[in-house]
Amino acid sequence: MSIPGPDLPEPSVRLRRPTLDDVGWMSEMACDPDLVGEHNWGGEPRDRVVVERDLREQIERGGLIGVESGILIVELTDGTPIGDVSWRTERWGPSRRSGCPAIGIALLPPFRGRGHGSVAQALLVDHLFTVSPDLHRVQSDTAADNIAEQRALAKIGMVVEGTVRDAEFRGGRFHDHVLYSILRSEWNARRIR
User: Fold this and answer.
1) Any idea what the Cα angle at residue 173 is, between residues 175 and 162, rounded to 5°?
2) Residue 20: how many CB atoms within 10 A of its CB?
């Protein structure tokens, strides 16, 4: 898979489907606000036993990867899992072609701030455009106070579209989000051949 954009380092990570071996650390991360990070914590305590059971069932059914949504594991090139990238479909109109994957990332604390997030999200965008030939755009939104993610999205060529006011309830109050996107034509222009 090619890495788009001259600003990105050589691939430090790769993406893969979740396996049953990932259930333990994934459920731990999902249930621990310090591990998942303030911008990925929903604010509600989660029962790890329930999260583990649900993840196991989804993986056994071949789930966590679909057209409308999915999760891929981010791992170092030596096979060490360090987090996940995900997508969910947003609709901007009633037609099927108006669907747009909205991407996100969660990395374990020791692996943040090292450029892995930019590379992982570039790989995810490339994957989505590759597996969906009719896909026109990919988007992401992040909290206005999440400067690291804003830098990562800009680094892979995503463009700021605007502010979504009071979009997320976190930490007892509403927070603005910044909406980013990249079109297939822009992505293709950035690709390294």
Assistant:
1) 10
2) 10
Q: Which residues pair with 88 in a beta bridge?
A: 69, 102
Could you read off the pLDDT of 110-123 as tens digits, one per residue? 999 999 999 999 99
How many CB atoms neighbour CB 148 within 10 A?
14
Q: Tokens at residue 20, please?
A: 């049953």
CB atoms inside a 10 Å sphere around CB 73 = 22
End-to-end CA distance of the chain: 10
Point out which residues pair with 170 in neighbouring strands.
173
User: Can you read off the two tokens belonging to residue 183?
Assistant: 């079109």
Q: What is the pTM of this model?
A: 0.89
CB-based contacts of 63: which residues, under 8 Å, 6+ apart?
A: 57
Look at residues 156, 175, 158, 162 and name the one whose alpha carbon lies nearest to residue 39.
175
Superfamily name and number for 13-190: Gcn5-related N-acetyltransferase (GNAT) (3.40.630.30)
